[in-house]
User: What shape does this take?
Amino acid sequence: MVKTMDGRGIPFPQLVRDIKGTMAGTDEGILTVILDDLKVADNLRRYAYNWGYCTGELEQKEGVYWLDIVKGYSCGLRR
Assistant: This one.
């Protein structure tokens, strides 16, 4: 699974539920989440780590943040 989720403007609790649901439906995959708030992005990185997922470096492009959340791969991404 490789998916992109637009999380801009979505309340944090709903975003967490959506991400958990998406990741629970697969054994392995990469979910790229697009965010407009650095605090939300940092919190999601912590949540992903606590769920046992890897995360990529947080990238900022064109005023938004891009966060990769990785499940089921032995990855070189930062965890």
